[in-house]
């Protein structure tokens, strides 16, 4: 069986498939399966883009929607895992695994499946210690933190994979297993990525759960991506024991090593996807404790016997067959002839990558133009300036002058809209200034959000219309809910968090004026301090020495309990801007080392 392995897809299915089809023709081979190691970006429509963890200016539909809609069909069976740049709302629908599109199968957040007689396992996401022991607590609609945290690997999913006993042939992870660099050409890796050296020395480059899975499962092959470079290693598990061939691949860009073709021995029989009996039995056994809150799974609540689960799954597979269910669309697909959802203007006219294509195809919707003119009228109240922008719009539509240069045409899809206007918009200065203003606007309110508590706005003297009894009831309920939430999270959150306290702060700035004792209603005894404490709206950013010392005294007299402290590391992850740019199909001369000899 000949299997193609791809690193980070970044939604560019068209070019990857075209490259493999050309490779088949040039090398006179047949590819049976494509495996993708994450950042697949299964974006069905504009709504999915809101859950895509990528810089706003790089969020684009790419080409997955064509395969989701049926406009195109994948030329090879494709299996993928999730990375850290995904439309997580769709992948959460397929948490256990399933068809993301015809011929394109998602392994789930953790999963094992068979292709012919080859057993393939996978773990989606990347490792972050502060989320590892939490449950899958994220709920739609996702906020900006949820968009990042939902793809962080969870202990529950790793625990299920560690229960696998039967041999695994291929395993996929987005993260590299920590310590894998010791088993390959480290000097060559550091020549490519010299900034890896410190993390390698500290033992923080990669995923600890992935390393644990590598030691337990010992697959014949392990493929990863994420770090955007090609790296091979050979892991010898014991002196005379089995070994694992590890290969990490790059992102999908011209001139990058993002593809590799390997040949694996396989038995006779059709090369089709089939459910894995052992994995389904493990899933059934632990499904009752799937953690859908912030608390980690409680495995003491698992009461099903492993052999009973195997027998149950075996009977079901004999009854219905072992093939996965057929693909079913679960959301409307992107329609390029109506690129603006619900007739709302999102800067479509002033986005050269969208405008010129749709203008040539005569697919611009009337609502788009209405939205554009409404936007001009709203943002530019000066009628004389509106007329100047209208005159310059004609130059832009005809792509005259600098706007028609070959570099400007290429840049329509390769550059972010703001960068394109800054480079090529000098002949239409008024339109240029307006376009940059529009394309720089955010499309979400998240940047302006605060704590949208019920107390923040309505419980003020100006706006409060509630009766005092109702207000007291709300405070009572909110306060007790807060206590309950903190109690439930006690096993995963470190209650002693003193890192951000500046003990000299009050000497420099003085203590802020305190209004906590002011009563909401005079003579009723309910103060704004009570309301703020219950709602957590007015918690201090910096502590003061008095409160710090009191906290330390309380800590010193308390009894320590045995628990795992969570490293509240920064949730920021490096975003490599060029990883989102569109890529071109690989040229023939790049096929030299693509096929494994």
Oligomer: single chain
Number of strands: 13
**CATH architectural designation of the largest domain:** 4-Layer Sandwich
Number of domains: 3
- How much helix is in the residues? 25-40%
Structural class: alpha/beta
CATH hierarchy class name of the largest domain:
Alpha Beta
What proportion of the residues form beta strands (DSSP E)? 5-15%
Intertermini distance: 14 Å
Record keyword descriptors for this entry.
six-stranded mixed β-sheet, Purple Acid Phosphatase, chain A, domain 2, alpha/beta, 36% helix, 597 residues, globular
Describe the structure.
The chain is 36% helix and 10% strand. By secondary structure, it is α/β, with parallel strands linked by helices. The chain has three domains: 2-322 and 576-591, Purple Acid Phosphatase, chain A, domain 2, CATH 3.60.21; 341-439, no CATH class; 454-557, no CATH class. Helix 13 crosses helix 16 and helix 15 (383-398) packs across helix 18. The model is unreliable at 340-344, 444-459, 497-512, 537-572 and 574-592 (pLDDT under 50).
Give a nutshell description of this structure.
With 597 residues, this protein is α/β, with parallel strands linked by helices. The protein is built from 23 helices and 13 strands. A seven-stranded mixed sheet has the order 10-11-9-8-7-6-13. A six-stranded mixed sheet has the order 4-5-3-2-1-12.
